[in-house]
Batch of 3 targets.
Target 1
Amino acid sequence: MLFIALIYLFVLPNPFTSPNGTLLMDYLSFWLAGRQALTGTPEIVYHLDSFSELQFRTTASDTVFAFFYPPTFQLLQIPYSFLSAKIAHITFVATTSIFLWYILRAILRNALWATCLVVIPASLNNAFHGQNAALTAALYALFLINIERKQPVLAGIALGILTIKPQLGLLAPIALIASYNWRCFASASITSILLAGASLLVLGSEVWISFVGQVPIASNVMQNGFVDWEKMISLYSSLRQFDINHIYSSTLQACLGLVCLVCVAFAWHQTTDMTIRAPVLIAGTLLTTPFALSYDLTLLIVPCAFVIRNGLEQGFLPYEKFMLTAFIVLSSSTSSIAIQLGIPLAPLLPFIVFVLGLQRYFYYSSFSTQMKATNTIKP
C-alpha cells in the first residue's frame, strides 16, 4: 500500500503535482529554503512576496507555501537541497522517520511496536506532506529517554535542537525547573545558542533580521485563517471554526495553556515516572500552542510509546487501551471530519493523551499496590 502511494505521488500525474511536474507539498518550502541558503540569499524565504514569486518560477503554479521556521531549521535543510525536490522529499521523510523509529525502539525495547507507531495515520499524514513532525517527535523522544536514563546533558542537547520549532518547547522549561534539572536546562540553553550561532555564521545576520520581521505576518496568517482552521488542532482554531472572534478564542486558549502549565509543573515535580511526565508535557504543549496542525499529532506517538511499554510490562490501567486506540484511529480523520461535518475533533486527541498521563498519576499508588499483590503481568 505504501509503495503504491509513493508511485502515485512521485511518478504518476496527480492533483498534488504542478504543470511542470514539481510536487506541491509542504516540503517544497523546506527544499527551497535550503536552496536559497546555497545561492547566498537565504533571507528571501522570510519575504512572502519574493518567496511566492520564487515558488511560481519553480512550479508554474499559484500554490504557495510560507516558511515560518527560524533560520536554524533552514540550516538543517541545506544538505537535502543538493538533491532534486522529489528525491529530497523522500530522503527527508525517510531519514527523519528512521530517526524516530530508532528512538521509539529504544523506549519500547521492541522493534515491531516501534514500527507500528511510526506508521499510524498521523505519521503517514506527516510523511505525505513532507513535514517535520517525525523529526520533532524524535527529538522530544530523545530528550525524554535521556531524562529517564539520568543523562541530562544529552537530554538538553536534544531539547536545544528542538528550538527549530519553538512553539513545541513552550512548557519544557517549566518541566525542567519543576524537576530541578538544572544541568539539562543549561545544556539545552547552550545548545540552542550554539545552533543559532551556527545559523548566523553560515546564513548571515540578514536572515535573522528578516525572520524577526515576518513574525507579525505569521501572527496575521493564523489570526485571519489563511491556514484553514480545519487543518489545525488547537482550541483556538476550533473556536474560530465556530466563528468565535479572535479575542475570546485567544483568551480561552491562554486559560487552557495556563492549566496545562500548572499540570506540567505539578507532574514533573511530583514524579519521575515517564508514563506520567511524557503525556502531560507533550500533550500539554500541543494543547497550549494555538498554532499546531494535524501532522503535529505525530508527536503524541512519543508519550504513547512510554504508556504502551509500561502497559505491556506491568498492565494497562482501565480504559487505556481504548484511549490509545481512539487516538490512533481519530488521528487519520480530524481534518476530514472538520471539513465535511464542521466538527473540530482535533483538540480531543492531545486531550486524550493528556488524560492518560493524569490518570496514571492519580491511580498510580493503588495500581502499583494491586500489581505487587497479584504479582501478575497483564497482556
Target 2
Amino acid sequence: MFPGFKKRFFFWGILFNITLFLILLAQNPFSGKSILSDLYLYPDTIHYINPAVNIFEGFGFKISREGRSIPTEVPPLYSTVLIPAYFISHDPRMFYFTNIFLSLVSAFLFFLVLKLITDNKLIIFFVFFLYVTNFFIGWYPKLAMAENLALPLFLGGLYLLFTKVDCAKLVLAGMLGVSLLAAKYALAPLSISFYLLFAIKVIFGEGSQRGKTRLVNFFILFVAGLTVFVLFIYGENLYKNYNLFSKSEYFLKLLVPVVATGAGTVSSTPSSQSPTIFSFSNLQDSSAQYLAGLMGGPMEFAGFYRQIAPVFVGMLGLPALFYGLIIKRYRFVCFCLITSVVVSVAFMSTFKVVDGRYVYHTIPVLLLGFAIFLDEVRRFLVQNNLKFAYLGLIASLFLYYLITSTGRFSTLVFENWNGDKTPLNYNTVVAFNSFFPKSPGDPAKKPVVITDLMPYFVDLYSNGHYRILPLATFGFFMNQAAAAWGPQDDYHNLLAVYDSYLKKGFDVYVSDSGIYDWNKTYLLHNFKGLREKYNLVRVSIGCSGECILYKLGVK
C-alpha cells in the first residue's frame, strides 16, 4: 500500500462525513415550509423558547405575555443556551442555529470518544459515518427540545470518564453532572450515575495514584458538584419557587399506583387497571418496548415510528457492550455505557408513555458498542491471517447500509429545502396577521379570535393586532387560564365569555384550524356548538383551506 495512504484516506473520509453531516442538517428555518416553524413538541417548546425570548422584554426567566408571567416547568439550562441566538433576532426559529451548533459539538465529541475506543481508522470512519447519517441525529435539531443539549453533555461526560484525570477535568465533571439535570429533569438518574461512575474512576480507576491523591481528587469532584448543585437549587427556587426535593418526593409517591376507595380517600393497593403516569406497573411493558428499540426494532420517537439505529448496530452493538465487560481494556468503558443505558431505560420505563427521545443518548452508545464489536472481530481475523475477511465484512455492512438508506438521505435533504410537513399552526397565525394587517383605532377594541392555538405560541408570530380566546375549556395552560388569556374572563363558561364580547361590541371570530385533529375530537364538538348557537359567516380562507376564519353573529 502506498505510504501515507491510510492517513490521507482517514483525513478525507472524516472530512466527507462532516460535509455530509452539514448537508443533512442544512435548511432554511424561516421558509415556513417545515414542522420547525410549528415549534413542535407542545408544550415543552414553549417552556424552553418563551423565557429565552421574553428575557429581552424585561419579564425575567419566565413564560410571559401582556405583563403576566408563570414559571416554567422545565430546567433552565437549555433556555439559557438559546439566549445568544435571540440576541441576533427574536424570531423563535433562531433556536435551530443553536441546535446546529450543539449537533456539531456532539459530532466532534462522539469522534473523540470513538478514537478512545479504537484506533482503527476504517472502523472510526464507518462508525462516524453511521453517526452523522442517523435519521434522528440529523432530524432532532428541528425541535426546540433539551435533548439537543443533553447529547453533547452526555458525550462530554463519556470523554471525561474515558481519559486521564486531572484537576480541570474533575471540576468539569463536577459541573457536567448537574448540567445534565439542569438540562432535563428526566436525566436525573443519568446525572447521579455519572457522579458514581466518576467517583469509581477516581477512587479505583488509576492505580498509579496514591491514596492521598485519590482522596484529594474525590474532594475536588465532590465540592465542584455540590457547588453547582446548590446554585442550581437556588436558581430553581428564585425563579420558579420550585422545591426540587418536594417534587422528588411527589414522583416517588407516583411510582406506587393509587386507586380511589371512597370520597376523599385513596389506597396504595396496586391496580393494574388504572396505572398512574409514573408507576412500577408500567415497567414490564415499557422496558420491553425500549429493549426492542435498542435491538434495532421500530419504536415511537417524537411522533415517528421507526428505528433509532440500524438492526445490525442494535443486534451487534448491544451484546458487544456486555461482551466487553470480560475484556480488560474495554471493561470500564462498557460498564459506563451499559450503566447509562440501564438507568435511563429503567427510569423511563416507569413512565406510561414510551418515546425514544427519552433515551436519545443511547444512539451513540449503540454505535460505540458496534465499534467494539468491529474492533474485536478485526483483532481475531487479523491474528488468523484473515484480514480480507474483515475488510469484506466492513464493505458488506457499508454497502447494505447505503442501499437501504440512500433514499432516506435524499428525502431528508429534499424535505429540508422543500418542506417536510405543512406547519399548520404557524400558517394559521400568518393567516390571522394577513386578515388583521392594521391595529384598530381603539386598542381596547382589538378583534377577538377564538382558536385552539396556545396564546404563547401565537404571541411568538403575531403582529399584535388582535387578541385570542380559547376554543375549549381544557388544553395546554388552561390550568393557568387567567395568566395565559387574561384575568378579566371566567374561562369555565366559554360561551358566556363569547357572549360578553359580542354584547360589548367586539368583532369576534373563530378559526377552524386543527378542529379535525383526530386526537382532539372535542374541538370539532365545540365548533359545532358555536355553529348551532351563533351565525357563522366565513370571512377568510387560509392555509390552502385548512384554516378558515368565521365571524360570529347573533342568530
Target 3
Amino acid sequence: MADILIIKLSALGDLVQADGAIRDIRNFHHDDHLTVMTTPPYRSYMERCPWVDAVLIDPRAPRYHFLEMLSLRSKLRRKFDRVYDLQQVGRTRFYYRYLFPRSWWLGDAKGCEVCLK
C-alpha cells in the first residue's frame, strides 16, 4: 500500500471543484492510503470526503517561521510515495523543494516528475 498526499489548501469553492480530481486519484490509487493536506477552516469538510483516508492540516505559517516549518515537516515524517499538488502556488513549490525532496511529485514545481507548467 502506497502513501499518497494530495495538496489543496485554498478556498472552499476550490475544494469543491477539486472533488472530481480527488475522486479520480482515489480511483487510480484504490488500495492506497490517501491523505489530503488543507488548511484549518476546511478540516471538517475534507474529513467527510469519502475519497480521503486522512487529513493533514497546514497552519499556513509564514515560511520565515522556521520552527513552524520544522513542526510541519515533523508531521510529515513518513515519506509519501506520491504527491499530487492541486494547489500549484509558490508555497507548495517551497514544500516540494524543502519538505518533500524525495517524493514523486505532480505539480508545477521545477524539477518535479510530472510538471503541469
